[in-house]
């Protein structure tokens, strides 16, 4: 059995050979894949990603492990575009990295606002990452990454987590003992993750309240084995992720671990130790320390994965050359037919892209409708409040507060609208990409600032003059005075005096009420104009942003389809050229392809053997105690 150093050196030699081969055959794009992986080799921290579906206990697990129960937000997912990193430092600090504002420190107590879906939308909108440092021995040489739930309905969540795995040395995948067994979408994520990360451990959380967690663990193992498939079986992920079957399972209880810490603080060390053993946290901590010690092994596995991917791409071209130089024209013809079929399917996809792209043009209108609906909801309470203003004094007091109140309401509505618009647009555009067989893209969150909505002068028009208007109020007043006077004349001898006085009072009340009604109507009109202006300005700003997203995504789709077409056309040209060449030319093509394929096959075999060695070494080093 080779030592760790020997295995690592063998991996590095293999990667150099693959890199040289890719460059020799003009595949700088494949060489770049290896270069990106190698760039992480000198990092002195072991990066461990904590992933899993929502509500599986990830954040509470990290809080408990680090002795800070309230540090990370629990019962709320990590924010869409955010990666939350914890590393060693002399004191508890938190630094936010924002796409617009850059990096700035925050109070660790504000983590929920910036890094959680339960936080303040205006603060978390542009956050890329939050880095937390704390003085805890487990974090020496280790960086823990808390990630969004892989089952989130927000498309970006899973993509952010998968992208994070590019920087991972190990993966802790959480499942809950109080929940259903591992689900299909979780297994699919694991298959993708295992392509990138060699060191994987399953953490079964919340075992304290589950009487049958052992049977659940057994069922989870069985589901994983069925997903991987039997050796040599086709149709499943197979050998590429078979090392997951040997990955450790660590049952833990954050609740018992927190209770242990509480007992220890009260001086009851004996009971605290007993609860700590039952919590299973010691085994998890040992695993994390083992990952730190096996960092080079884990990174070797990542390099091997990249090298294997490069070799697969080179092998496809080499096989075409061998087939094209064959004396028997059947195989070249079959390969050429496959390429022609792929080109025809690509042409169909391109037509579909144009049809689906036309549908994307209505995204801006959908967002504008969203703006109108949201502002209509915001305006309704104002209209209800105006209808309750029954005096000019109340209207004046309300009017004094109205501009600031409307401005605050519009700002709050803007933050909510941005989140809704991002969700709507991201989902629609990623469905567009998926329909073309392309990978989803994480659209930038809306960074557009709220436009400066043109402020209107919310002043009520001057009240009507107090002088008597004969044509508007005199005639009705005279009639009213006569009517009341005649009525009272039958009741009292002074009716001719009381009648006009009462009439004047009725007229005054009517005039005051008319003034209030006129002012309420004016206030409603001004409010309607203000919200209509705001709706137009906000909708226009978002429509421009959405148009930018749509253009970028459609351009990405066009570039991806064009790249596929170029590769297929290049293969077709090479196959046709070789088939049309003279026998000597075909012999040279076949010999060249055979030689290249032989080299690739030998390198691939070495990579598979090394990967098996490293998988065994990693699992052996990180195996928990019995």
Structure description:
Pfam families: Dynamin_N. Keywords: Membrane, Transmembrane, Transmembrane helix. Residues 48-206 form the Dynamin N-terminal domain. It comes from Planotetraspora mira. The chain is an alpha/beta fold. 64% of the residues lie in helices and 9% in strands. It is built from 18 helices and nine strands. The chain has helices spanning 4-24, 28-38, 58-65, 111-115, 121-124, 155-164, 184-194, 213-228, 254-265, 269-279, 281-293, 295-324, 330-360, 363-387, 392-435, 470-489, 495-580, 583-622; strands spanning 46-52, 83-88, 93-98, 102-106, 127-134, 142-146, 170-176, 199-205, 249-251. Strand 7 (170-176), helix 7 (184-194) and strand 8 form a beta-alpha-beta unit. Residues 152-157 and 462-499 have low confidence and may be disordered.
What is the secondary structure topology, with strand pairs?
Blueprint: H1 4-24, H2 28-38, E1 46-52, H3 58-65, E2 83-88, E3 93-98, E4 102-106, H4 111-115, H5 121-124, E5 127-134, E6 142-146, H6 155-164, E7 170-176, H7 184-194, E8 199-205, H8 213-228, E9 249-251, H9 254-265, H10 269-279, H11 281-293, H12 295-324, H13 330-360, H14 363-387, H15 392-435, H16 470-489, H17 495-580, H18 583-622
Parallel strand pairs: 1-6, 1-7, 2-5, 7-8, 8-9
Antiparallel strand pairs: 2-6, 3-4, 3-5
């Amino acid at each position: 059995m080779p030592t760790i150093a020997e295995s690592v050196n063998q991996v590095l030699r293999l990667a150099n050979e693959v890199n040289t081969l890719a460059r020799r055959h003009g595949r700088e794009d494949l060489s770049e894949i290896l270069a990106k992986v190698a760039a992480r080799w000198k990092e002195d921290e072991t990066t461990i990603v904590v992933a899993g579906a929502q509500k599986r206990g990830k954040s509470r697990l990290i809080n408990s492990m680090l002795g800070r129960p309230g540090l990370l937000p629990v019962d709320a997912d990590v924010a869409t575009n955010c990666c939350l990193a914890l590393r060693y430092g002399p004191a508890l600090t938190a630094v936010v990295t924002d796409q617009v504002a850059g990096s700035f420190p925050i109070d660790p107590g504000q983590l929920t606002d910036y890094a959680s879906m339960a936080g303040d939308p205006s603060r978390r909108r542009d956050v890329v990452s939050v880095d937390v440092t704390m003085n805890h021995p487990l974090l020496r040489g280790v960086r823990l990454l808390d990630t969004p739930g892989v089952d989130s309905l927000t498309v970006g969540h899973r993509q952010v987590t998968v992208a994070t795995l590019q920087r991972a040395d190990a993966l802790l995948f959480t499942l809950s003992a109080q929940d259903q067994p591992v689900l299909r979408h979780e297994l699919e994520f694991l298959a993708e993750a295992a392509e990138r990360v060699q060191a994987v451990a399953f953490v079964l959380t919340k075992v304290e309240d589950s009487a049958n967690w052992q049977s659940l663990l057994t069922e989870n193992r069985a589901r994983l084995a069925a997903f991987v498939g039997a050796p040599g079986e086709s149709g499943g992920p197979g050998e590429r992720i078979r090392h997951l079957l040997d990955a450790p399972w660590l049952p833990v209880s954050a609740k018992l671990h927190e209770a242990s810490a509480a007992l220890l603080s009260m001086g009851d060390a004996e009971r605290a130790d007993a609860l700590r053993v039952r919590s299973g946290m010691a085994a998890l901590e040992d695993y994390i320390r083992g990952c730190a010690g096996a960092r080079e092994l884990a990174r070797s596995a990542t390099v091997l994965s990249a090298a294997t991917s490069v070799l697969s791409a080179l092998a496809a071209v080499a096989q075409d050359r061998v087939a094209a130089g064959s004396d028997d024209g059947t195989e070249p013809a079959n390969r050429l037919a496959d390429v022609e079929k792929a080109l025809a399917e690509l042409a169909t996809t391109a037509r579909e892209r144009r049809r689906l792209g036309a549908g994307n043009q209505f995204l801006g209108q959908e967002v504008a409708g969203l703006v109108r609906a949201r502002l209509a909801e915001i305006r309704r309470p104002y209209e209800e409040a105006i209808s309750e203003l029954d005096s000019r004094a109340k209207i004046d007091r309300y009017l004094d507060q109205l501009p600031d109140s409307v401005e605050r309401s519009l700002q709050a509505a803007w933050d909510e609208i941005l989140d809704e618009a991002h969700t709507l647009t991201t989902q629609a555009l990623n469905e567009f990409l998926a329909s073309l067989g392309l990978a989803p893209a994480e659209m930038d969150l809306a960074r557009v600032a709220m436009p400066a909505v043109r402020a209107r002068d919310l002043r009520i028009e001057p009240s009507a003059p107090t002088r008597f208007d004969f044509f508007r109020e005199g005639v009705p007043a005279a009639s009213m005075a006569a009517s009341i006077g005649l009525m009272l004349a039958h009741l009292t001898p002074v009716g001719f005096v009381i009648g006009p006085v009462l009439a004047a009072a009725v007229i005054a009340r009517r005039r005051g009420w008319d003034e209030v009604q006129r002012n309420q109507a004016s206030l409603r009109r001004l409010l309607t104009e203000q919200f209509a202006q705001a709706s137009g300005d906000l909708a226009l700003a978002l429509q421009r942003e959405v148009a930018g997203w749509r253009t970028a995504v459609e351009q990405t789709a066009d570039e991806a389809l064009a790249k596929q077409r170029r590769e297929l056309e290049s293969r077709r040209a090479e196959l046709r050229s070789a088939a049309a060449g003279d026998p000597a030319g075909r012999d040279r093509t076949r010999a060249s392809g055979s030689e290249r394929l032989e080299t690739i096959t030998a390198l691939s075999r070495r990579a598979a053997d090394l990967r098996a060695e490293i998988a065994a070494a990693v699992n052996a080093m990180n195996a928990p105690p019995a």
